């Protein structure tokens, strides 16, 4: 089985050493019915970190097209393809088409529960549910999880997902956040260990229409820490995907457990 090197930045599709059955060529969707929780930011950051080495398509399915707007700055890396002409009629075809062309597909979705979101989840290998640390946001995350579980029922296949805590302080741990984190974990809901911290750099990429790598460290504070944060996130998501694929091979059935978990969390 493929081992992720510590640098993690391997391009699964291109290494001759990896047998085809072990290739991970994921479609990763960022979902939350709540706006402003960091879907676009985290989807974009992840895509641009992968695009250091791998061909990546980011599907900009938010009708406001924030990523297409970002690309107008002319700083999109060569390996990053942006597809933004998507709606509920075309999303499945766009994802399939992208997955046939680039090893990694990232889907940034709008903040409403729409058919587009449901179709995108149906195509995803991994669903990330960005959530800020308030009870209100955690409730929205539960709604997103229910949509993921519905998709599992429809397809009859487990759909790996995890909550990503966003905009957390790298310095202080707010008590409310710890409480939410603990109750999610107690309910059996997967929560990524890596959080996306609140960082100037994550705003600056959109303000300057740059990638993290293109930002000037003299102008943006803690740029290295910001990059390290996104690299950890990418590594953890890939590790989770790999674990899922191993689980699938072992024929493990996760659906029952997850259904029980969410029933317990509701
Ligand atoms: N980790 C972060 N650090 C700093 N600012 C952030 C972070 N995540 C999101 N933001 C800011 O919060 C706002 C909403 O984020 P966005 O990614 O557009 O959310 P969504 O796509 O869920 O609506 C944006 O102004 C963005 O710059
Ligand atoms: Mg968005």
Give the SSE layout:
Elements: E1 27-30, H1 39-50, E2 56-60, H2 66-71, E3 80-83, H3 91-101, E4 104-108, H4 115-123, E5 126-132, H5 135-155, E6 161-168, H6 175-186, E7 196-197, H7 200-207, H8 223-249, H9 255-265
Parallel strand pairs: 1-4, 1-5, 2-3, 2-4, 5-6, 6-7
Helix pairs in contact: 1-8, 3-4, 5-9
Bound molecules: adenosine-5'-diphosphate and magnesium ion.
Adenosine-5'-diphosphate is lined by residues 35-41, 111, 166-167, 196, 198-199, 202-203, 206.
CATH class: Alpha Beta
Bound molecules: adenosine-5'-diphosphate, magnesium ion
| Sequence of strands across the biggest β-sheet | 3-2-4-1-5-6-7
Described by strand count, sense and barrel closure, the largest sheet is: 7 strands, parallel
If helices are DSSP runs of H or I spanning 4 or more residues, what is the number of helices? 9
**Extended strand count:** 7
Coarse shape: globular
Report Rg: 17 Å
The ordered H/E elements are EHEHEHEHEHEHEHHH
User: Which architecture per CATH?
Assistant: 3-Layer(aba) Sandwich
CATH topology: Rossmann fold
Low-confidence stretches: 1-9
Structural class: alpha/beta
Keywords:
266 residues; alpha/beta; Rossmann fold; seven-stranded parallel sheet; 9 helices; 7 strands; 44% helix; globular; disordered N terminus; binds adenosine-5'-diphosphate; binds magnesium ion
